[in-house]
Amino acid sequence: MLAFVTAVGLSSGAYAQTPLSGFMQGKNGGNVAFSANHENYGEVYLVPEKIDGVPIFNSVTVNSFNIYASYGFSDKLDFIVNLPFVRTAGSANQDVLNDLGFQNSREGAQDISAFLKYEFAKKGNLSLQGSFGITTPLGDYKVDEGLQSIIAIGNRATTFNAVALAHYKLSNGFFVTGQAGYSLRSTEVPDAVLSQLKLGWAKKRFYADAYLANQTSTGGVDILRPGFTGFFPATQVNYTRVGANVYAPLDGNFGINAGAGTTIGGRNLGKADFFSFGFVYNFKYREY
Q1: What range defines the domain where residue 210 resides?
Q2: Which DSSP symbol is given to 171?
Q3: Most exposed: 136, 167, 198, 283, by fewest CB within 10 Å?
Q4: Overall domain count for the chain
Q5: Which phi and psi angles does 222 have, rounded to 5°?
Q6: pLDDT at 3
Q7: Are 29 and 230 in contact (CB under 8 A)?
Q8: Cα distance between residue 113 and residue 131, in whole Å
Q9: The CA-based dihedral angle spanning residues 116, 284, 167, 207, taken in that order and rounded to the nearest 10 degrees
Q10: pLDDT at residue number 180
Q11: What percent of the chain shows pLDDT beyond 70?
């Protein structure tokens, strides 16, 4: 299978679950991808109900630039790394910002992620895989600025992620990939259960998928509710997102990808719409 497929779907860098797909790179296969991502929200899922307008900032825009790379050490073992640079910006009234001593934007390197993925069983069209990864802050961004941290670029926590994947692909290109995992997080950030279901079609000249992704925190507090101290990383962040991705090659080594999606449910986060566009360089030349 073409090396590009694990680079597709890295939109919404601030909220991406894991940079994993069900396709293996193969020995010495892999790619490097550069993508620009845009996200915007003006509604927020709070408890007990969704509200219009982001507190203080009215609406929030998140722009990020992702650097992603993967490499196949063997036909059964892949290495994946991802690094986003993120800028968040609100649309708050300047007089409000001046009164509070706040700023309307935050930016910087966010969290670097590294994963190893191993295919431990394959029978016919079905592949079973397991992955372990670590995500840790790279930049010195702040998360302890009270309501200013509504536009923080991340949670500033180290996470340890264990994910199981099942991937089924037919010869006509149709595939289904399911993944489920657990994210163990440092500091006061609640642990979370992660899941994703992806349906798609992958052939030499084209790739497309649609997905449903979910995060459910195992604890945490609600924003502006009892127990909330103003430290946003300690909140219970749940979400359900749907989206789609496409990829097309420009030649054997280069290709372009695009993705889009939206948040359809959540808790303590914005109701975001997002899209991405990127370029991919595949290590191995492929005949089409």
Answers
A1: 29-284
A2: T
A3: 136
A4: 1
A5: -105, 145
A6: 44
A7: no
A8: 13
A9: 130
A10: 97
A11: 93
Inter-residue contact 278 to 35 (CB < 8 Å): yes
Which has the higher per-residue pLDDT, 60 or 17? 60
With respect to residue 10, please indicate whether it lies within any of the assigned structural domains: no
Q: Which residue has the tokens 């536009």?
A: 151
pLDDT value of position 8? 45
User: Measured between alpha carbons, how far is 265 from 47 in angstroms, rounded to an integer?
Assistant: 12
Residue type, position 118, single letter = Y
pTM: 0.91
- Amino acid (one-letter) located at 12: S
Residues 28-43 have pLDDT tens digits of 999 999 999 999 999 9
Asked if the structure places residue 7 within a domain, the reply is no
Compute the distance between CA of residue 54 and CA of residue 92 in angstroms, rounded to an integer.
9
Pairing relationship of beta strands 77-90 and 105-109 according to DSSP bridges: antiparallel
Q: Could you tell me which residues are beta bridge partners of residue 241?
A: 213, 263
What mean pLDDT do residues 240-261 have?
93
Confirm whether 242 is domain-assigned.
yes
Pairing of strands 206-217, 192-203: antiparallel
In a domain, 15, yes or no: no
Nearby residues of 169 by Cβ (< 8 Å), 6 or more positions away:
1, 22, 125, 127, 175, 176, 202
